[in-house]
Write a structure and sequence with these properties.
Length: about 200
């Protein structure tokens, strides 16, 4: 993996990248806790890169090594604009967004608001308060959830999958609040097949 820095008006965003530079871009977005950051998606990066994708997992401004242009952490619309500027900075018109928890909520909002910029969504326990937003998604969605998630209860998995028009749900007995990366050995091949459809 290599370091990458992406200039945005919200700060200089640090990330790690793996895979061919000309591969389809997968942008990984982490959860809200300061324990998160680009490492939230680290277990998924090598297998996705091996399948030919260009994977970039970032520290959003205010997390990890990404110092925000203004003090504090990002919220809804600002985070969406930051995602768009990262895509521009990476010279990519359309990307696959991979989001965990808060980052999953940002990915959903980006996909709904700017559908042409997002081709697919890979989500694990996304923090989405307005489920009506999920019904507006036009992209295929791969959703992962663990039965032992202590943050967003497992019952939401079926609710979200029922609302999203084009959703493939993968559930796991364990994995806590990070079902996808914690079960990467099983989930990464599923994601590769999903993106190849």
């Amino acid at each position: 993996m290599n370091d990458v820095w992406i200039d945005t008006e919200f700060g200089n965003v640090f990330g790690k990248t793996a895979g061919p530079a000309n591969g389809r871009l997968i942008l990984g977005l982490h959860g809200w806790s300061q324990r998160n950051g680009w490492r939230a998606w680290q277990p998924m990066m090598a297998p996705l890169a091996a399948a030919g994708f260009c994977v970039v997992s970032v520290d959003m401004p205010g997390w990890g090594q990404s110092v925000p242009a203004k003090p504090g952490q990002m919220m809804g619309d600002t985070a969406v604009q930051c995602v768009l500027q990262m895509l521009d900075g990476l010279d990519v018109e359309q990307a696959i967004l991979m989001g965990k928890s808060w980052g999953g909520g940002v990915a959903v909002k980006t996909a709904v608001t700017y559908p042409r910029r997002v081709s697919h969504l890979i989500l694990t326990a996304p923090a989405v308060r307005d489920q009506a937003q999920l019904a507006q998604l036009t992209q295929p969605v791969l959703l992962a959830w663990a039965e032992d998630d202590p943050v967003i209860p497992f019952q939401y998995a079926a609710q979200f999958a029922a609302v999203i028009p084009n959703c493939q749900l993968e559930t796991y007995l364990t994995g806590g609040h990070g079902a996808a990366p914690k079960n990467a050995a099983d989930f990464a091949p599923i994601a590769v097949r999903f993106l190849g459809d």
